Amino acid sequence: MIYIKGKDRAQSVLFPETLDQLVHQDHEVRFIDLFVESINIHEFEFKIKTKTLEGRPPYNPKDLLKLYIYGYLNSIRSSRVLEKETNRNIEVMWLLKQLTPDHNTISNFRRDNEKAIRKVFQKTVSVAKEFKLIGGQLLAGDSTKLRAQNSKKNNFNEKKIKQHIEYIDNKLDEYNDALEQADTENKKIIEEKIDLQNTRKSGYEDLQKQLVETGETQISTSDSESRQLITRNNITEVAYSIQTVVDAKHNLPIDYLVTNQNDSKAMGEMLERTDKIIPLKGTTVLFDKGYHTGSEIKKAVDMEINIMVAIPAVAAHAPDHAYDVEHFMYDKENDTYTCPQQQQLTSTGTNYKKQNGIAIINIKHYKTKACMDCPVFAKCTTNKKGRLIERSEYAPYIEQNKINIEADKEIYKQRQCIVEHPYGILKRQWGFYYIMTKKGKQRASADVGLMFVAYNLRRLFNIIDKNELQKYLEKLVPYFFSILSFNKLYCSKIRLSFFSQIPALYFQKVA
Asked: How far does Cα 427 stand from its chain's mean position?
């Protein structure tokens, strides 16, 4: 059977191909190059650490940024793997002009440039704006959890520390009892075990002291700012929570934030941050029920946002669900509630303080004397004094949110397909389900920032016509770079033209 044959590896090549010829003119690596070159490096304030004593100049931050963007677009985040790519990958050789930075240089660039990487992400958003890819009329917010470089074994809370100390105390009692009955040879072994347990106990006591001093509820020993968070169905992971706000038109993230908290207090800050990028007044923004917090909804309403946050299930039910608080109608003018039995519950107007998680909120009490003679008393409440309704200071904003959702339920159904799109790409397609870096939120934010830079660029490359994108980026590239590119292209054409004439000249001479 005849097969397609490759070239002879030992065959000499008279005119070897250049790197530029090996990379197709429409290859995305050329657009990565153009995008990074369009950045004013001084405005982005990249930090590059160098050993000045060696007298060797540093790498250009643009070259290291190009390497990282290429890596993340191709699911490569490891600095050691990126180092290998600079020596074996023709596309990377072309992109970096055959520079070969070591893995420490590559790693340090990501570690030290979280703020600059965020500015690069903002640059992708501004490019999307220029091409009118951001609608700004409908947005959705949510979070995803990315595992930290910290195992559950190295995460401690007060209860877990107490259990460890109790276990060690029991072991010490056993060893001390055994020590009294042991002979000389075994005593030494037991004493070593006692010393080991005392050392472990001292370590746990230090962690306990640290919890008290910092006021934190958890301690992670490998990545100090990571926390054990609920990921899904009450399953927990030591992770970071990545908050995002995504525009509906092309599923482009507008902003991101790395936190180590759950969602309940995150919405207000994300809206304020996004409002600086895209004015949100009059915009519809969708969030899931994890963000249903009165104070956060108030911030959104005060910003004149058409906010829609999914309404969670009722936390406490009446004996008969038909008498849950949601069936009591509030009259704003008279400041009263009307129960299903058409009785009015009134308030004295006194505000009471109530602890709500870590926050203290103002509430008012509503009740009626009619409860004592009500025929459905047992169905309505278990309180012997009658039904009591608490109304918080944030109730008007929560009610406004409910009105927004009921007015257009179809819009809210779009939330998941808008905001989950980036997470699906990053976590399922690209495998970015964990944080690559260690030692804090700032370094984690640099990793996440590069993820979203790569994601937005992938969307831009897929949506915008390549010729239009190239023309736009070339306009942003500094003048000297454009001239340099032109000269290289012009010289290469002359060189190719000259070499193409050599065979003909040679045969003419032979003839």
From this structure: 11
* Average of per-residue pLDDT across 111-125: 94
Residue 155 has pLDDT above 50, yes or no: yes
CB 389 within 8 A of CB 367: yes
- How buried is 40 (Cβ within 10 angstroms: 0-12 exposed, 13-18 middle, 19+ buried)? exposed
Per residue in 367-376, pLDDT (tens digit) is: 999 998 899 9
Q: pLDDT tens digits, residue range 189-212?
A: 888 888 999 999 999 999 999 988
For 227, the enclosing helix (H) or strand (E) is strand 227-232
* Measured CA distances, 482 to 26, 476, 479, 488 (Å): 18, 10, 5, 10
Which residues neighbour 253 within 8 Å (Cβ) at sequence distance 6 or greater?
244, 245, 246, 247, 422, 452, 455, 456
* CA dihedral sign of residues 254, 255, 256, 262: negative
- Helix-helix angle 441-463:28-37, to 10 degrees: 120
- CB neighbour list of residue 155: distance below 8 Å, 6 or more residues apart: 218, 219, 220, 221, 226, 227, 228, 238
- Rounded CA separation 451/453 (Å): 6
